[in-house]
Design a protein that fits this description.
Length: 556
């Protein structure tokens, strides 16, 4: 009796830890880094007095477990935080969104297609029986004409009826299998959690002095999201500043859509190595030649250089999207506006010492589909100086360049750019702010009304021998034509070789009007041209070297 009383008293003081599952927590804020993203989700529940275990379910598997942070209200104390994979969950947890509907539809249609197959089998058996018993009359007595006519009509009607049923079954079967294929492709395209796939859960062990209603704020890094910058450059004419539309391409494959979330873009990159570099001593010793490895390295380097020397596809030429006459003859009186244009008050730019953040006011929807979702982040007017530039040795094209000074204050990142000049699509370019120069060069594409051509003057290319030396002379002429109806200034860049060997002597013999940079062998002409005018420039140089040797011109 005493033992029973003691056991009862002991059970009175043993408190069972409550287990509470939160399935409806929602992601409210997302900070997207260059290679990661930080999700912040909110959840609410009622806690009993004492210790409780909170299971926050339906979390992406792409979580970085070391980055979990939890906040709570109403003096609830967090005892521990952990995460786990749950392989045994209900279908609602594993199939968010419409994927569950698609899977159920596939199951239903597959069942119906199998039923149609059985129907077709039954009709084919019936048709086979009809064909096997179509002998008319007996061996000793034939049918009268009227009887034969009736039997033939009956057989024909029955054949048509059965074959029509088989045809209809085939049509229904083909349609259902086609729908199943479309739905299955859609399911495969979707990256949401599929049936049988585990889900991530965050486990919170908490303590509350009293029974309270509380909220939890949980944030963590996910590895299945990133953003990259992209630009749209618009230039009305060479007398106006550049209009730069800065946009972000967001991709996420977390398995869960971000619905009506507040987006913040950060230029930080948590994936980079943030440990400072350490300089260790290096040692010098006598080299032991290794012929095989030297040959192998030479072959690899040669292959790389050949790949680099392959001529890249030329940039897109000027493409006229719509003539001025067609633009003026628009029937609609209402003017179209840029739907992605963003007002200054719709985004907050926070500049820190090591990063820049773009906080977007309007809530966004970013599906977990692995596709690029483009959102506008800011628009900039870039004062620029324009000039025409050509390197005819490499490309017979004249390119319009915009030179932007003091570009560091715009916080630009490297990214692709789409070019428009006077509202016409020009082509693609690339913005690379990762340079030490104080001027950012942006190529606005080639101008087809400026022609340039570089030719070798064979009459002046001669080889002479004297004493034990050989002298080779090379000459090139560049012809420039201005087909525009306005005067222009074009800078033409060319080069001659420089010698790194005392036995090889290079002499620049002719380069009238060029600005010469002898350390690099660079020649720069700035040519002013009137409308319709054509000009020629000439470069002549000679190379003197020992007669028994051979020379080659090559890059570094």
């Amino acid at each position: 009796m005493k033992q029973t009383i003691l056991l009862g008293l002991t059970l009175m003081f043993i408190k069972v830890e409550a287990k509470i599952t939160i399935n409806n927590s929602a992601v409210t804020n997302v900070t997207i880094y260059r290679n990661y993203a930080k999700e912040t989700r909110m959840g609410a529940t009622t806690l009993p007095q004492g210790n409780s275990e909170i299971i926050v379910s339906n979390i992406t598997q792409a979580i970085d477990e070391n980055s979990i942070q939890v906040g709570c209200k109403n003096n609830v104390k967090i005892l521990s935080v952990s995460s786990r994979l749950n392989y045994i969950t209900d279908e609602n947890g594993m199939n968010p969104g419409t994927i569950k509907i698609w899977q159920d539809s596939v199951k239903w249609m597959d069942k119906k297609s199998r039923y149609l197959s059985k129907q077709k089998e039954a009709f084919e058996v019936e048709l086979a029986v009809l064909n096997a018993n179509n002998k008319l009359g007996s061996n000793t007595e034939g049918l009268k004409p009227l009887q034969l006519k009736e039997l033939l009509e009956l057989n024909r009607m029955k054949q048509i009826e059965i074959k029509k049923l088989i045809f209809e079954v085939d049509e229904d079967y083909a349609e259902i299998r086609n729908q199943i294929a479309h739905l299955q492709n859609q399911i495969n395209e979707s990256s949401q959690n599929a049936l049988g796939k585990p889900i991530r859960e965050i486990i919170l062990r908490v303590y509350s002095k009293n029974e309270v209603n509380t909220q939890f704020k949980i944030s963590y890094l996910v590895t299945a999201a990133h953003w990259t910058p992209t630009y749209e450059i618009r230039c009305e004419n060479t007398a106006t500043p550049l209009l730069l539309h800065c946009r972000a391409k967001i991709v996420q494959t977390t398995g869960f859509d971000w619905k009506n979330v507040n987006i913040k873009l950060s230029t930080a990159n948590p994936n980079q190595n943030h440990n400072r570099p350490i300089l260790y001593p290096i040692y010098v010793d006598f080299m032991q030649p290794d012929f095989y490895n030297n040959q192998l390295r030479g072959q690899q380097l040669g292959g790389y250089k050949n790949m680099m020397n392959e001529k890249a596809p030329a940039p897109a030429g000027l493409v006229q999207m719509m003539s001025a006459e067609n633009r003026n003859n628009q029937l609609d009186t209402e003017e179209f506006v840029d739907g992605m244009k963003i007002d200054a008050n719709q985004i907050t730019i926070l500049e820190g010492e090591m990063m820049v953040e773009y906080e977007i006011e309007q809530a966004q929807v970013i599906e977990s589909d692995g596709q690029e979702h483009i959102i506008a982040i800011q628009e900039l007017l870039l004062p620029a100086n324009y000039n025409y530039h050509s390197v005819p040795k490499l490309d017979n094209g004249v390119f319009l360049l915009a030179r932007v000074t003091d570009w560091g204050k715009y916080n630009l990142l490297a990214g692709d750019a789409t070019l428009f000049f006077d509202d016409m699509y020009i082509g693609k370019s690339y913005i690379n702010p990762n340079v030490s120069s104080d001027t950012l060069l942006i190529s606005l594409g080639r101008d087809e009304k400026l022609n340039i051509k570089r030719v070798k003057l064979n009459d002046l290319c001669v080889t002479k021998k004297f004493s034990n030396k050989k002298k080779e002379t090379k000459a090139y002429e560049t012809i420039v034509k201005n087909n525009k109806n306005i005067p222009v200034e074009i800078e033409v860049l060319d080069q001659y070789p420089i010698s790194k060997n005392n036995d090889i002597e290079v002499t620049l013999e002719e380069a009238d009007g060029a600005q010469i940079t002898r350390d690099y062998g660079k020649l720069l002409w700035r040519i002013k041209m009137l409308p319709g005018e054509s000009k020629k420039i000439r470069m002549v140089y000679s190379v003197k070297f020992p007669e028994e040797k051979a020379i080659v011109e090559k890059g570094t």
